[in-house]
Structure formats: C-alpha cells, structure tokens
Design a protein that fits this description.
With 605 residues, this protein is of the alpha+beta class. The chain has three domains: 112 residues, no CATH class; 271 residues, no CATH class; 83 residues, no CATH class. It contains 13 helices and 24 strands. Helix 4 crosses helix 6, helix 6 packs across helix 8 and helix 6 crosses helix 9. The longest helix is centred in the C-terminal third of the chain and has 27 residues.
C-alpha cells in the first residue's frame, strides 16, 4: 500500500543516494538463474517477394504496423511488441526474439509457444505478397562470466556434434558456439515444432552439464567422450565455429552412422555419442524438466522421430518455403516469466520504459518539475512491478523527483547490476556489457556491444576471413603498461649494477651509465674480433643491435687512469692473466687498446 516506504525513508533520510538505497530495499529480487537456468530463443527468416525475389527486411521494418516500441540500446531496428517479445531485422533477415524462459517443468512447451506466437505476429505484420522462409535459430542459455569461455570450449568438444544432429538439415553448414555477456549462444539451423522442443531440452541440460564439469573435476565423468574436432574461429562475434566436416567426416551425410574420432583415440558412432550426450543432459536437468519436456528429444535420440538431416528433401524439413499469406492467430495462453513493459501512472509521476535488454530495464519517471531514471535488473523486474502496483515505491520515487540534485548519472554497465535511481542517463549503448573482439578475444568498449548487421551462419561464405580490427583503447592501455614495466625493470637493473660490482647485465644491447654527469650512452657488445663500439642515442650510424657471443662479469670500479687493468693484476707492468675462454685476438685487443667490452669505464673517444 502507499506509504509503506515512509519508515524506511525516515531512517535513511532524503539524499539522492539514500533514496536510491530505499528503492533497492523495497524491491525484492528473484534468485539469479544458474547455468542453463534461463533460456532465450531467436528465430531468423529470409524475406522474399513473388515479384522482386529476396527483400531486405531492414529497409521494410520501419514501415510495418508493429505494435511495439524501440527500446534496445544496441539495436535501433528492434521493436519490443505487446505480445511480449521482440521483432527486429538482422541485416536482410527478419528476426523474432522470445522473452527469457526459466528452466522449470514445462519450459520446452512454453518456449515452443513463444516461438509460434512471435512467428504469427511477424507474419501478421508482413505485407501481403511477402513470404518468410526459416533461416536460422539461436539458443541462449544463462551462464556466469567466469565459466563462459571454458564452458563454450568444452561444449564444442563434447555436445556440439549431437546438437548439430538435432538441429541441422542435410544442407546445413555447421554450428556456432559463442560466449556472450551473461549467456552462452548456440547458433544453428532453423527448427520448429518437435525439433525445437527437443533442442531446447538438450541445450538446457547440456550447458548445465558442461558448467558442472568446469566447476568440479568429478563431474566430468558424466560427460560424453570428448571428440577430436577442428575448431575454427568465428568471424563476426567471438567464439568457435564447428563445421559439418570438423570431425574428419561429413556428419550430415552419414548422420547416425558417422564415425566420430575420440580425443583419447579410437572412434565412436554418432548414434552412440548422441545417446551418451542425451543421458548426461537429462541427468543435469533433474527435477527442472517434466516428462513432456523430454519427450521430443527422447523420440529423436531413439529414432522414433527422424532427425532433420534424415528428411527426404530440404523443402520438407522445418523452415521450408511457405505461402506469403499464411496468418496464424496469436496464442493468448502464454504467460511471460517477466512482466510486460508498459507505462505506469502513479500519484505524482508517470513511469515508462526507455531501454530494455536481456539483463536490465530502464524506466523514466516524469514528475512536475523534472525527470529521473530507475534502472532495474532482470531478476528484480517482477518484484519491482509488483511493488509499483501496490504503491510501495511511490514515496521513494516522488521524494527523489522532489530533489534538485543532478549528480547521479547512469552511464556504466556496472550500475545495471542492482536497482537504483539516477538523475540522468548517458548514452544507452554505453550501458551494454562489452562484447569480445572476434579477432583477439579482448573486450571491446561498451558501445561496441551494439548489434552488427552482418551475415549470419547458414549463408554462403559467412565463415570467410574478415579484416583485422584496429587496435582498441584497451589494447593501447595494455601496451603502455607493458612498456612501463620494461622501463622500470631496466632502471632497477642499472641501479643494482651500480650497487653490486659483480652484477652482470645480460641483454645484447645494454644501457650503461657514463661517468660524465648527464650523459647516458649505449654500449654494443662486439662480435668476435671486432672493436667494441659506444654509441650515443643520437648517433644513428652506430646505433645498431649486434649479437652477443660472450658474457663478461661486471668488474669492480677501478681508477680512470688505468682502464686496461684487470682485477687481481699482481704488479705494474706485468702481463695480465687472460680471461677464461677469451680468444688470443680479443685478449691482445683488450690489452693494447685499453678497452673492455663492458663496464662503466669503457672508452668514450
């Protein structure tokens, strides 16, 4: 009820920071999903016209009558629609994205229903005479960042071949395994109906099994045998590409009869590996899956239902061509796990969403005098909507709007991890978690997390090489840090050389400190039989690197008028003892010329 937040406000005061904390205390949060505990699905469609052939959906989407709002900070073409999902364009293809579904009993049927609802809404909005053909399917499973890279690499070696059997047709190219911020993304062929339900159950269980194996060594015994696979680097986003021929044979040509090479030696049939992989995934799901969630996958593994590659013709497989005027009714029985985003009118202010992603949602609160922003993470969104409807947040938000402060700015991805109130919002793309550079694997800037309109897996030539990206700011900072460490190391070495006469500087190109104040010179160690050279920094003719053939100890300091004397010379005028291992030519040169190949008293003439 309204006014429940007043005791909290009375304790905390009314500053901007404490009012933000009051909001956080009033918003309950769900338990964060574990690995594989949250599933998302993206389905892509190629768009064609009976008259003009293929149509670029990116040039068409903004002219459609879509019941939605553009809220994605990284994708200006994405419309979050009233049915609960997103309709967008990924380059030339049309795409629908379902709301995240928690992995609990009935999740496969719910994800399948969301896919049907989104496809029906897309076909409803498409102009007449425009048809949609299934293009690709992308599964996303929640995954902690500290496990994501290792889980993806392990998945490519253990479960990738089996997921390809469950998803790919006879003409499909392969599978993409990509660690994305907060989730593992698996991209394959377009599927629907029973193959979609089977793949959803397999993805949820297999990602959990890989995460458990990464965390605990004992859990690796439950995994299927590792395979010898030739992985390629993904082109457009960081990750790995598993080609249909990456296992030494054409996986889809032989299907269940293919022989897959084990990493430990020997081979195993694709059917046997598929059975072991499904057993591991089913065990990892445990009580979070109902019998209906496992039914489709069990039938495809045992052979009761054919695999997509076992269909007679590609057009008969899921995603074949359909008439352009097919329009399915919306399924109104699907209830989202997260509340649908809409405007809320409360006493003293109006709240409406302005940004929404997989991880967080930002609302704009408009009051009589000014505006403020409330950032709510995904796990806190159900509790936030319930508390807002009950009026428990009215006092905190209204009191924040009454302040005149402008200090708090929402501008960094770290701020989206917990609920909070802010005075201003920076660039929306700056709130996105940084993506990985596909060439180097290093994190890019936050604004680079925006969606790229590039070719997707399944197109001809989608895995060809791409130009190397220019050096980012993080790389320049790393190089500066490395140069600073090298410079500090050289300074410590020279300081130790001054304190310890027996200290030997081993690099071939050395810096020595001259006895003349303010003059620093570079001494090059000569080749055998050559005169040693001393070059200043500005002398480009003698500033060259030579290969060091022999190391000499740093002799103790001697008077400058006797530079040719060796330590331990018995009397003046006596012949100095030769150095161990020194050639006669060098010994004579050192004695006559008065030069030593290394040392602070080397000749400066």
């Amino acid at each position: 009820m309204a006014g429940e937040g007043r005791p909290v406000l009375a304790v905390l005061g009314r500053s901007d920071r404490r009012l933000s904390k009051a909001l956080r205390l009033q918003v309950p949060s769900d338990v964060p999903p574990g690995p594989g505990g949250l599933l998302g699905l993206e389905l892509e469609f190629s768009v064609r016209s009976a008259r003009d052939g293929r149509v670029h959906f990116g040039s068409l989407i903004h002219r459609l009558a879509l019941d939605g709002t553009a809220l994605d900070p990284g994708d200006p073409n994405a419309y979050r629609c009233s049915w609960g999902g997103v309709i967008t364009s990924d380059g030339a293809e049309a795409e629908i994205a379902t709301p995240p579904v928690r992995a609990r009993p009935g999740f496969a049927a719910r994800l399948q229903a969301w896919a049907r609802t989104g496809e029906a809404e897309l076909r409803r909005a498409a102009p007449r005479g425009v048809g949609l053909d299934g293009y690709s399917a992308h599964f996303s499973a929640a995954m902690p960042a500290r496990l994501n890279d290792r889980v993806c690499r392990l998945y490519a070696e253990t479960f990738a071949a089996d997921l390809m059997l469950l998803m790919d047709r006879a003409d499909s190219p392969g599978l993409l395994v990509r660690p994305r911020p907060g989730r593992t993304e698996l991209c394959g062929e377009f599927i629907e109906n029973e193959p979609l339900a089977a793949a959803a159950a397999f993805v949820a269980g297999s990602t959990r099994a890989c995460a458990a194996a990464v965390r605990r060594q004992s859990a690796r015994t439950a995994l299927p045998p590792r395979l010898e696979v030739r992985l390629a680097r993904a082109v457009h986003r960081y990750g790995w590409y598993v080609d249909r021929g990456a296992f030494g044979t054409d996986l889809h040509a032989a299907s269940r009869r293919a022989l897959l090479p084990r990493a430990s030696g020997g081979t195993i049939s694709a059917q046997s590996h598929l059975e072991l992989a499904w057993a591991a995934a089913r065990e990892a799901l445990a009580d979070d899956a109902a019998a209906s969630d496992l039914q489709a996958a069990q039938a495809m593994v045992t052979g009761s239902l054919p695999l997509p590659a076992e269909h007679g013709q590609p057009d008969d497989a899921p995603g074949g061509q359909r008439g352009g005027d097919v329009r399915s009714p919306l399924d109104g029985t699907v209830v989202p796990d997260t509340p649908r985003l809409c405007a809320h009118v409360r006493p003293g202010f109006t709240l409406r969403p302005v940004a929404a992603t997989w991880d967080f949602t930002v609302f704009e609160a408009s009051g009589p005098g000014r505006r403020a922003y409330a950032c709510i993470p995904r796990d806190s969104l159900p509790g936030f909507a319930a508390a807002l409807e009950e009026g428990a947040l009215d006092d905190a938000i209204a009191a924040y709007l009454a302040l005149s402060t402008r200090r708090r700015v929402l501008s960094a991805p770290q701020q989206t991890a917990s609920p909070g109130l802010y005075d201003r919002m920076g660039a929306p793309a700056g709130l996105l978690a940084p993506e990985r550079d596909p060439q180097t694997g290093h994190q890019e800037s936050g604004e680079s997390g925006a969606k790229r309109t590039l070719a997707r897996p399944g197109t001809e030539g989608s895995q060809k090489g791409s130009p190397v990206r220019p050096e980012s700011g993080s790389h320049r900072s790393r190089n500066r840090r490395r140069a600073g460490r090298r410079r500090r190391g050289r300074c410590r070495a020279h300081a130790q050389a001054q304190q310890d006469p027996s200290f030997c500087v081993r690099p071939a190109l050395r810096l020595v400190l001259s006895r003349h104040p303010g003059q620093r010179k570079r001494l090059e160690t000569p080749h055998r039989g050559e005169q040693p050279q001393v070059a200043s920094h500005g002398d480009s003719d003698t500033y060259r690197r030579t290969r060091q053939r022999r190391f000499f100890p740093w002799p103790p300091k001697q008077p400058r008028q006797r530079p040719a004397r060796w330590p331990g010379r018995p009397t003046r005028g006596a012949t100095p003892a030769p150095m161990p291992g020194a050639s006669p030519g060098r010994e004579k040169l050192q004695h006559q010329g008065g030069l030593h190949p290394i040392g602070p008293w080397a000749s400066h003439s």
